[in-house]
Amino acid sequence: MKVVTSFPKEKERIIKSIVNLLKNNKLLTLATTNKNQSFCNTAYYVFDKKFNVYIWTGIHTKHSKNIKENNRVAINIFNSTQKWGSLLQGIQAVGHASIANDQELLKAGLLYMKRYPKCVSLIKSPKELHSKIYESKIYKIEIDKIKVFDEKSFGKEEFREVVIKR
Fold this sequence. Notes:
Elements: E1 2-5, H1 11-24, E2 27-33, E3 38-47, E4 52-58, H2 62-69, E5 72-78, E6 89-99, H3 102-115, E7 136-150, H4 151-154, E8 159-165
Antiparallel strand pairs: 1-8, 2-3, 2-5, 3-4, 4-7, 5-6, 6-7, 7-8
């Protein structure tokens, strides 16, 4: 994986900002589309060091059906309690989503169980996240491009973009 930006001197600071925003927030908005209609939903997420984002969601949901038809997605992550006029922070990203394979399920499941300890009352192992009981799956969102809006780090009305080459 290679992270590319048009601000190469700020690359480490941009990556640090993205990681901090991913760590300090827990909900994302996922935008999906099919041939006829766009749809968005909210989901809890975890992420890995390669900027893959994982969500645990039902297989019969509108967004899961949309991903099956068109795996291109967009996500938005931010703290919704930010005050208007304050130094704002958030992430907008695009990529593609798919149901996690066995190796990804194990990694994402362990991340999920660590970040959301209460889910251990529902599942005992990461494999149970693909359980028929819950009719759910872990979806991997492989991010291609991230736009980070971090006025605390980069100044008022400033954003930075990175492209992730895999």
